[in-house]
Amino acid sequence: MADDAAFDATPDVLTAAAQGRLKSFIERIERLEEDKAGVANDLKEVYAEAKGEGFDTKILRKVVRLRKQDKVKRQEEEALIDLYLSAIGAL
């Protein structure tokens, strides 16, 4: 075990300090999961609002994804897509 100080003489028993740390990690994870659920709900509402105003949410998601990419990487990807489409006669 990496941190033997956190464990008692018996491998099945955590020290009081280790129990406290474990509880702290669990509580932090639970709070972050709640935050994540809240953000996911907020995103869902924004997409629904955009859809209600006539925007295509599938395209909005793609635009968001593209904006996250590095410009050079995005240009390389677009060039490959054009090449592949041209190669199969789809353009």
Report the span from N to C terminus: 59 Å
Instruction: Give the C-alpha Rg.
Output: 24 Å
Total number of distinct structural domains: 2
How many strands in all? 0
Determine the strand fraction and express it as a percent band. under 5%
What series of H and E elements makes up the topology?
HHH
Shape: elongated
Please estimate the helix content: over 70%
Structural class: mainly alpha
State the low-pLDDT regions, or none.
Answer: none
Helices, by number, come to: 3
Query: What composes the largest sheet?
Result: none
Please tell me the overall pLDDT: 90
Task: Describe the 3D structure.
The protein is mainly alpha-helical. It has 2 domains: 53 residues; 36 residues. 73% of the residues lie in helices and 0% in strands. It is elongated.
Offer a few descriptive terms.
91 residues, 2 domains, elongated, 73% helix, 3 helices, mainly alpha
